[in-house]
Amino acid sequence: MNSEVRAPVLAEGIAEYLAAVRVAPPGTPLETARLLADLHADRIAYPRPEGMAVTTSFAAGETPVRLYRPAGEGVLPGIVYFHGGGFTTGSIESYEPLAMALAEAADAVVVSVHYDRLPETTPRALLKQCYKALCWAAAMAGPLGIDADRLAVAGDSAGGFIAAQLAILVRDCSGPPLAAQLLCYGLFDIDETRPGYRSANDLVLSRPILDMMLATYRECDAIDPAPVPPLHCPDLSGLPPALLIGAEHDPLLDEARDYAERLRLAGVPAELLIAPQMPHGFLRAVRFSAPARREMRRLGDAFRALIDKD
Fold it and tell me: Are the C-beta atoms of 111 and 65 separated by less than 8 Å?
């Protein structure tokens, strides 16, 4: 019996993206890895669509945000987006390709939030900061040219965890009404024993990276415990409709399936799109991969159909 683990078959352009995005060798100190990702963000940069305005500002005090507004007049839907990076890395700089492509595909104003990262903060403090940024975006809907009735939260990977938690917080704290939540290959559990983790064969989110991410979260959460992860929230009723996108090779795919099912059982409309031959994090590959661009357009089309259905 051959026990050799074969490398997954990847969609067109993904191998080139992975080669471009790997700028920090294994073992690089966290602070250095963060800097290198930002310094070399141009290696994965997505061409700015014609007429798109990009502005960097600050939300709710001193939280940096980057604003993406597609060409055109009048108010647009708004998406408050939280980047991935395992809670410890990622920034509005290194995740610009995803945020910019999302603004283009969804024809929406995207507010990309640079939240404080672990281990310099705690999950509870991080969520509080992100909630304030979301409330800021709703309060600034007029100056931002956002239709406050078509405001959504979005996130990928750890950012998907944050976006899902914010949707719950908005419900429980009577925050700004949300029209949708866009959850891209999100983390919805903090459980090292999940079967998908044990069999991880993803070229981006390997088992050692998963273990490190979850261990860091647990250590920081022990200082000031945050609400339970979305999959363990006892009541998911009354949340905004959810669009989830998963990747075929992603070890987080099974928890996306689980979360979508729990949302449906709670009466929340939830659609799960699964991208074939894709690893975790593939939406940042829009510069390199035609299939990644198609998946982004599919997400944008589904978002517009959802918020415009009435």
Answer: yes
Q: For residues 250 and 205, give the distance between their C-alpha atoms in angstroms, rounded to a whole number.
A: 7
Q: How confident is the model at residue 4 (pLDDT cuts 50, 70, 90)?
A: low
Cα–Cα dist 287/155, whole Å: 19
Which value, to the nearest 10 degrees, does the dihedral of the CA atoms of residues 35, 123, 114, 97 take?
80
User: Rounded to an integer, what distance in angstroms lies between the CA atom of residue 59 and that of residue 124?
Assistant: 18
Per-residue pLDDT band for 65 (boundaries 50, 70, 90) equals very high
Q: What is the DSSP letter of 200?
A: -
User: In this structure, how many other beta carbons lie within 10 angstroms of the beta carbon of residue 83?
Assistant: 28
Q: From residue 85, how far is each of 16, 57, 65, 102 by CA, in Å?
A: 20, 21, 16, 17
- The pLDDT-based confidence of 81 (bands split at 50, 70, 90) is very high
Element (H, E) at 233: none
119 preceded by a cis bond (ω within 30 of 0): yes
Which residues on adjacent β-strands are paired with residue 56? 66
Task: Answer whether residue 3 shows pLDDT above 80.
Answer: no
Which alpha helices (DSSP H) does the chain contain, by range?
A: 14-21, 30-39, 96-106, 123-139, 141-144, 158-173, 195-198, 207-221, 253-265, 290-307
pLDDT digits (tens, 9 = 90+) for 123-155: 999 999 999 999 999 999 999 999 999 999 999
The catalytic site residues sit at: 157, 250, 280
Strand intervals (E) in 17-75: 53-59, 63-69
Q: Is the dihedral of CA 94, 99, 101, 102 positive or negative?
A: positive
CA–CA separation, 157 and 82 (whole Å): 9
Confidence of residue 8 (pLDDT cuts 50, 70, 90): confident
